[in-house]
Amino acid sequence: MRAVRRIVNRVLIGLVGLILIALGGAVLAVGLGVRPPSWWIHQGPHDVLLDQAERTRWRDRSWWWPAVIASLAVLVLLALWWLAAVLRRGRLKEVVVDTGDGEAALLRGRALEDALAEEAGRTDGVAWAQAWLTGRRGAPRARIRLGVAPHLDPADALHHLTTRALAHARASAALHRLPTEVRLRAVRHRPERVS
């Protein structure tokens, strides 16, 4: 489902972008003096988008303004839904843990995220850590961001993360593998005054 949403999102963004570029480029070209085809909405640099007759043609119809307002409201709601779908990260709510007796237990995804972040943040030189779980319940994936102090070697930060926090998370959730994307960000520090 997420892959379909990603494809639809990219296609819609591409189509909207192409339409806006085509319309904006055409209006700019007409404004700069390029002669447009006869069917184009603007006929010259001093032409208006809607003239007086076009703006007042439907004013006396009782259905016109409710239809305009309803269609604009639907467009705004669709745009807000699209924005929410784009911004929403598919965080994993729970992880399936094999208990070894043929049954399975459910571990809250937020609890595993908090444990990962807390243990990753305990490394000397790591100022802060954030963790997110994505993927499926039986095959989770982790995304971790670390704020690394300037004196900490990034290789050491990754080594501590993989041998401690990720190893403990895999063991506690009985996961054979936990693919992880790690992003390191340097933490800025205030300059020290030398006297």
Description:
This protein has 195 residues and is α+β, with helices and mostly antiparallel strands. It has 2 domains: 2-87, no CATH class; 94-186, Alpha-Beta Plaits. Helix content is 47%, strand content 18%. It has 5 helices and 5 strands. The strands form 2 sheets. It has a 3-stranded mixed beta sheet with strand order 3-4-5. β3 (126-135) and β4 (140-148) form a beta hairpin. α4 runs antiparallel to α5 (154-172). The chain is elongated and about 75 Å long. 12% of the residues are buried.
Quick take:
The chain is of the alpha+beta class and 195 residues long.
Looking at this structure, what is the CATH superfamily of the largest domain?
Answer: Cation efflux protein, cytoplasmic domain
* Count of discrete domains: 2
Looking at the overall shape, the CATH architecture of the largest domain is 2-Layer Sandwich
The number of helical elements comes to: 5
Share of β-strand residues? 15-25%
The gyration radius over C-alpha positions equals: 28 Å
The biggest sheet, with number of strands, parallel, antiparallel or mixed sense and barrel status, is:
3 strands, mixed
The H/E string reads HHHEEHEEHE
Structural class: alpha+beta
Instruction: Please count the beta strands (DSSP E, at least 2 residues each).
Output: 5
CATH class of the largest domain: Alpha Beta
Shape: elongated
* CATH fold title of the largest domain: Alpha-Beta Plaits
Q: What is the mean pLDDT?
A: 84
**Uncertain stretches of 5 or more adjacent residues:** none
For the termini, the CA-CA separation is 61 Å
* Approximate helicity band: 40-55%
